[in-house]
Amino acid sequence: MAAGARLLARLLALLPALGLALAAADREEWYTAFVNVTYVDPATARVRTERSECGRYGEQSPKREARGLLAVAVSPRERHACRPGTRFAVPERAGAWIALVASGNCTFAEKIRHAAGQNASAVVVMNVGATNINETITMAHAGTGDVVAIMIPEPKGRELLMLLERNISVHVQITIGTRNLQKYVSRTSVVFVSISFIILMIISLAWLVFYYIQRFRYANARDRNQRRLGDAAKKAISQLQVRTIRKGDQETESDFDNCAVCIEGYKPNDVVRILPCRHLFHKGCVDPWLVDHRTCPMCKMNILKALGLTSSAECLDDLPLDYDLAVGGVALNAMVMSDDVMGVDIAGGRDPGIRMVGLPQVLLDSEPMSEDTMATEQSELQPMASGSSEASLAVGAGHLDLDTPAEDVKC
After folding, report:
1. CA distance 107 to 59
2. 144, 114 in Cβ contact below 8 A?
3. Signal sequence span per UniProt (predicted)?
């Protein structure tokens, strides 16, 4: 589960990088062109000059300066320059000249090749029929050689065309303008990123479904185990001895230990619960503790094992091995190990199903005892309870057999 989460995180981290890489790959570099127009006004006989950054160089066009007289096709029907051998109205002894053609009817490469075939030093394409009348595009015209080619808006082209139709000589100079870098998202990039995102979303959804199914299973197993342990604890509590403190009992003396749960002393008429380890507590204090923890508040003895009702390890068979890591719940295995501190040492030769009732913890953790030692320790422990409770303690613990293992009761 943890490896799947790391893999998913890496895949999600790659998506922005992939989008940036595609965006960087799909970009267009283009240059504007300054168009300087010079002509003599017939009405005033004065030289007029106009300069505007209205052109755009073609994609395969050399980015350099070009100048010459402007010329258009002789026939108005050939102004698209789509026919090889298109004749242009070039003034005599013009030297370098620039062809003015209209867009449409054929490719830009054909137009430029036909004009270059008539010795045009540059080609100016008028963008006719565009949605935005002032729009220009970067023309693609592979295979046209080193002819300078630019595109100008339709209004500017119509203005130049009107001057030529009035037999006015127009001198045009083309110079390099501003370099532009335009980023755009191509259709291929959009499809690729969309498919990648959908795949990542499917993987994420599948992983989340799997994770929550496993979490639900683990939670159910934990709750089922807690219910079983709680039922076993209630059964064990019902078998523990209950006694009422009377006036004059040893527990009412000031030097007797207080209840370890509520930290209060014992008073006459208090009802106490006596555990197999000989520790006693107020019944109302220790019963909820035993239901939740199933251990003695003082020595951590497991009452289920002590009474031979169940083994906590049996209740954990239903849980997966990675329960604690996957769910992050309470480490029940660790709880069982802590309960086993009061358990019987197998290496010492004692059966783990037997609880040594009445023996102190230090003797349970030490080497096996002889019969004399056990008798001595039993005699030393007798004063812990009052004389009136000794018989009841013997009865309460009488169901425990020190020589035979307790029956295994399935939880």
Report:
1. 14
2. no
3. 1-23
Question: At 175, which helix (H) or strand (E)?
Answer: strand 170-183
Residue with tokens 């009412």: 252
The topology (CATH level 3) of 27-183 is: Glucose Oxidase; domain 1 (3.50.30)
Contact present, 296 and 275 (Cβ < 8 Å): yes
Q: Which residues of the chain have pLDDT under 50?
A: 312-411
Q: What is the rounded CA–CA span in Å between residue 247 and residue 192?
A: 88
CATH superfamily of 223-396: Zinc/RING finger domain, C3HC4 (zinc finger) (3.30.40.10)
How is residue 69 written in tokens? Answer: 């007289």
pLDDT given at position 409: 41
Q: How many CB atoms lie within 10 A of CB 301?
A: 24
Q: Mind listing the pLDDT tens digit for each residue in 49-107?
A: 999 998 999 988 999 999 999 999 888 888 888 988 888 988 777 788 999 999 988 99
The residue whose two tokens read 């949605």 is 131
Site of tokens 């992983």: 207
329 Cβ contact list (under 8 Å, min separation 6):
218, 219, 222, 323
CA distance 290 to 276: 13
DSSP string, 235-286: HHHHHSEEEE--TT-GGGSTTSPPPTTT-----TT-EEEE-TTS-EEEHHHH
Residue 268 identity: P
Q: How many residues does the chain have?
A: 411
Take residue 86 and report the two structure tokens written for it.
């298109």
